[in-house]
């Protein structure tokens, strides 16, 4: 398994195919292997702390501490902090909800709701044939909606959006029943929720990257629209 493809090196030519653009953009969005580690470590810290203490505040605190270490490390290296900041915000919201309700399972509610909302957005975009990934292509062209004129590009973006959608749906399908079972008082499902969050976090994301990479490596769709206007032919002498 290879790492996410990095962006073009300094001095390298600009991307010439839609597949290259999407690979570069997905790599930037994920933050490479460091980004994947930043997303996995807090969930692992919560799980270990919960198994050792069964204390929701201690477990959330362990998760937050790992995120802060990641944030400090990125600042020290002058790297982007967007992945760490996003995790801190999610953890803060989860900690607030759990502290108000006193239920450890409520720590996972924001993540479940976020995945459900993203699933709805991605599904709606595919139904309307305006797949979300298409806007990744449009963001680097002079015509943000030009990709819509090429059926091949639309089909590619539909496939990639579908891959991301499948991940969101799977997380909700697994975690929501566990959360509802805990809410119903049918045992403590916090450990199961923590394990599912860890397993369906970076491993599922890596699988999605591998599958997306396989789709992208097969295609060579020109970046310029096929129906771009051509220069008028010179009049006969």
Protein model, in words:
The chain has helices at 18-30, 32-53, 56-76, 82-101, 109-127, 132-138, 151-183, 190-199, 202-218. With 237 residues, it is mostly helical. The protein is globular, with a radius of gyration of 21 Å. Residues 1-12 and 225-237 have low confidence and may be disordered.
List the helices and strands and how they pair.
Elements: H1 18-30, H2 32-53, H3 56-76, H4 82-101, H5 109-127, H6 132-138, H7 151-183, H8 190-199, H9 202-218
Helix pairs in contact: 1-2, 1-9, 2-3, 2-8, 3-4, 5-7, 7-8, 7-9
Q: Which short descriptors sum up this protein?
A:
68% helix, globular, mainly alpha, 237 residues, 9 helices, disordered C terminus
Number of strands: 0
- Outline the low-pLDDT stretches: 1-12, 225-237
**How large is the count of helical segments?**
9
User: What is the terminal separation in angstroms?
Assistant: 60 Å
**Which value, in Å, is the CA radius of gyration?**
21 Å
* Major beta sheet summary: none
Q: Approximately how much helix is present in the residues?
A: 55-70%
The shape, in one word, is: globular
How much of the sequence is in beta strands? under 5%
Query: What class do helices, strands and sheet pairing give?
Result: mainly alpha
Q: What's the average pLDDT?
A: 77
Order of helices and strands: HHHHHHHHH
């Amino acid at each position: 398994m290879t790492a996410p493809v990095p962006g073009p090196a300094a001095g390298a030519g600009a991307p010439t195919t839609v597949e290259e653009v999407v690979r570069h953009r997905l790599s930037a969005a994920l933050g490479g292997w460091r980004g994947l580690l930043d997303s996995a470590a807090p969930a692992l810290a919560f799980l270990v702390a919960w198994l050792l203490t069964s204390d929701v505040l201690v477990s959330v605190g362990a998760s937050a501490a790992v995120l802060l270490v990641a944030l400090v490390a990125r600042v020290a290296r002058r790297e982007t902090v967007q992945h760490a900041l996003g995790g801190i915000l999610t953890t803060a919201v989860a900690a607030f909800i759990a502290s108000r309700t006193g239920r450890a399972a409520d720590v996972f509610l924001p993540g479940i709701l976020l995945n459900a909302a993203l699933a709805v957005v991605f599904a709606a975009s595919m139904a309307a044939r305006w797949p979300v990934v298409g806007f990744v292509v449009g963001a680097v062209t002079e015509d943000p909606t030009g990709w819509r004129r090429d059926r091949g590009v639309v089909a590619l973006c539909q496939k990639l959006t579908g891959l991301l959608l499948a991940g969101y749906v799977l997380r909700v399908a697994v975690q929501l029943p566990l959360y509802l079972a805990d809410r119903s008082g049918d045992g403590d499902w916090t450990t199961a929720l923590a394990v599912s969050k860890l397993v369906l976090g970076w491993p599922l994301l890596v699988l999605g990257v591998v599958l997306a990479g396989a789709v992208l490596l097969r295609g060579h769709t020109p970046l310029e629209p096929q129906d771009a206007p051509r220069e008028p032919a010179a009049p006969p002498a």
